[in-house]
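Following up on my earlier thread - several people asked me to post the actual chain instead of describing it. Fair enough. Here it is, all 313 residues.
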Amino acid sequence: MLDNPLELLRVTEATAIAASQWIGTGDKLGADQAATEAMRERFNRIEFAGKIEIGEGKKDKSFGLFAGETVGTLGGQKGVTHYELAVDPIDGTRPTVSSGPEALSVLAIAEENALLTTEEVYMNKIAYGPEVASKAELHLLDPLPKIIERLSAATGKSPSGIVVCILDRPRHEKIISQLRQLGVRIKLIQDCDISGAIATCLPRSGIDLLYGIGGSPEGVITACAMKCLRGGFEAQIVKPDGTPADPKVYAIHDLVQSHCAFAATGITDGSLLKGVRFTPRGPLTHSVVMRSKTGTVRWVTAQHGGNVTRLSI
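Reply from S.P.:
Thanks for posting it. Predicted structure:
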């Protein structure tokens, strides 16, 4: 699977198509169930053995794909190597059901015993692109002025030309205020910090840094994507109030300790991927799939046959 990640792409495509039928419905449970069932069904058509290491989480009262679940035609069989999977059928359920931007179906795969797991819900994160990573190391626990100073030197931009992406949450009010005092520009996002991190690796995005607290499952999935993209990433596990739950700061190699692959398909339009389109010939999807071993990144637009149409409500 690590050598043929296009199979993963078929999983996120099927999941995104299922989720897209719930765009604008306001029904988060319905969207989550449709996406989860589509992802499981497509996994179970692939000849491999996979184990969900990071899934939906019982805290979300989801419909499965919990940690420990096995998938694939060989899943659960003894003597078979089980790849570890980190999945998020809908990264951005709220924007999906409210017709908002940036919703994705995402997953990552790695070798056995490679992915970090934690019971804690949140991680504090910093992410930046490969050009910055080749010139400077930005450390999560450094003071913000020092981070912005190093980022400015690495990019050749003045602080006023730097754009920092951060989730629009009350917990970030002090950070946002400090960033504004430093003179940088801020892109506030409502959800989907995975795409925000990936954007730092894409010069056309205009995003230089992702910073702040988001979900722990998304943090591990992001680490896989950043490993493929050769970007920089650090994370610390924190409690809901932002205080450290673990003093350790995890680098990419701590979060994913093997080669990995990453796939994502757009559900709604975003800065990273376009959302699903329904055409007379079938759904049209826009996706990205990456491998850490080779650094290959493929952007894929696919026309799907069949009679899949928008859900009637």
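The chain has nine helices and 14 strands. That should answer part of your original question.
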